[in-house]
Design a protein that fits this description.
flat, three-stranded antiparallel sheet, 6 domains, alpha+beta
Amino acid sequence: MAKIVFNNPHGRPVEVDEADTTVVADGPDGRVVAAKDPMTGATMMRNLSTETYLPSDMPSEEEEQMMYDDAMNSIEDIEPNPPRRPLFNWKNLRLQQAISGEAAAGARRAGRAGERTFGAAIRLMSERLPANQSIRDSPQIMMLATVEDWVTYVERMADSPIDMGAEFSASVSPSQRIAVTKFVAEWEQDVGHRNLLQKALPGTQPSDLVARGELVYSLMTNRGPNPMRARGYGSFKFDKMFRLAYDIISTMPINFYNSYTLFNLPALEGEAAFREAVDRYVPLDLSEVGMAIQMQQKLAEYGPGYAQIAVADPSMSNETYRLMQQVVNGYNIGDTAVVRSALNALQDAPFYYMAEASADKSVFDAQNTADKGVTGVAQIPKKVFGDDDSLYYNGLIFLKDFPQAAISDKTKGAIDFKSDKVKNQSFEVVKSPFDTTVVGVLKFGAKKDNISFVKGATKSKTMNRKEKIDAATEMAEALGNPGVQSKVESILVKEGGAAGLKPLMKAFPKGTSQAAAKKAIAKIPSVYQHKAGDYILKNPRGKPVGRGKFYTLELHPKTQLDMKLAVTTSSGQGDARHGRGPRGKEGSQNTWTKGLYKVLDADIEKRNAKHRKDKKTRKDKFPKMGLMITGGKHKKTGSFAPYRIKLPKSHFAIGRTPDGAQSIGLQSGKASPAIKAAWEKFTDEYGVFVRKDTKSTQFRFIPSKKAEHRGAYYDKLRRQVGAKKSR
């Protein structure tokens, strides 16, 4: 290592290693360096001229010429490479479990495919991979896939329910989900995709990079293959193809270390390496800070049990708990980027996490809800707290269970001291809307200025940690089945809209106490308890539902069709009076329902015959289909179009889509293979229907407005309208 000679303040020469010096200035006149005198500690400086200064790591002219000659000789010895043959195509991008499942009938062939490995690089360069060999578990080989290969695979997936089912059920780590979530969020915020293009490797075509990103975004926003076509191929683990999206991102020609893959670093190298690599800070919103603090408190109180009751599906509690730990750890070490990404993942499918603090505003005003139980109020003098303003948050004091009726001005939190709900009443004070720790009790007297505060007091004995864990466990047992709400609603429908607690206990896991069941039912928004004790199923207007035998699918608003209005009868009122069945060249009920009418009518007759034989009665238990479809002339096409289609409750039930909307589908275990096949054709034609009740029709379903839920019928209708206009 080179030495630089300095003169200390006493004029004596001092040799210092070049590595121990600091560059003060560097210009055309030379480089000024500084160093510490080891004896006196004084600062020494020296100006190195450009002629005399030569860094120790810079080669000489002779060394540079030798290095150049060696490089040129090496290049001349290299033989030109032959044109690269394609080693694989889009078929090799399929998941191996899908390939193996498709080839299950030919076990011998599948076994031979499984014996092939990627160990020999020479073999890969000399022969083409077979179609039954996936490269999805080999990242180095998958990097060679072109954007055309990925697009072709996604397009062909629409005709392969096995591939779709495998992609929806492919396992991904929480870090990979966070990476995909961050990519989608950045894609929406950065319209010009500048951040992505800045990560591109030299020589990368921007169009190729943007095309891969657009494919990922389409998959994550449900603009890809319709998941309805993959029904019957097992239960899906996710509602989006996270594994496919992450694999496409990992094959982008961008820097190896980037913001999308950085989240894998803690799992691979440890938290210390991750903290060392992350040197950025992202400001969090107040709601995000509140969720992080609340999550930290809940995990400290309830432990992993909090993850079971905080999300829609308790079966995802393990992954939920890991993501919550990432939020808490990231918040504690100041890694706000991980906090925000993990919170985005938790609030998205399939978790749908909703914390109390997530709905709070950035600037809080007085409000009181049953969920929070905390209200911000004003007009509390600081002298009440001994001039301590630490309890004030945006000028408000937050009280538990403060009555909303006692607030005269919601925007300022003004208290009505004349209200009997305030006079001589005591309320617990919490730290903030995010931190509901009780810090004392505030007592109001008979007059406005008669207010006292007792620090550290509580109104009643609070539960200890064990009691809180027991309560959380009890509730988790009650809600352990994610279908509890739908089961309760189904039982009430069968009971005529109302029932006591005993029949509803069938909706809960065995061993659930009645007290826990009551708590769970009280949290179901569609059910309320009558003062007489019965539980009643509500419709959107808050009234009990009726006993109808059919669900109604409304394909068109009646304003789009020309229909006659039938006379009012006991069975036909309101909108049910509109329309008629198809006649003549317009087609039959069976053709319009894609064969569903015929198989349903035959199955109902079969069930009624069995019922009459067993019960020795001539009365039918199940209503006959009769007129299944009604409609009229479409105003824009001039042809017959369906207005409503009815589905029997004996074969169909109400379920929920991932976003919480009520939908309709076949009852599990009660449909024959013929009915299942006909229903699949029906949904392909008309799409997914969501519940939208009216005053006259309580169980009314209309086509979903989401593009991924639309059927082929509406595309045909648009073409017919266009052809009519052109003529």
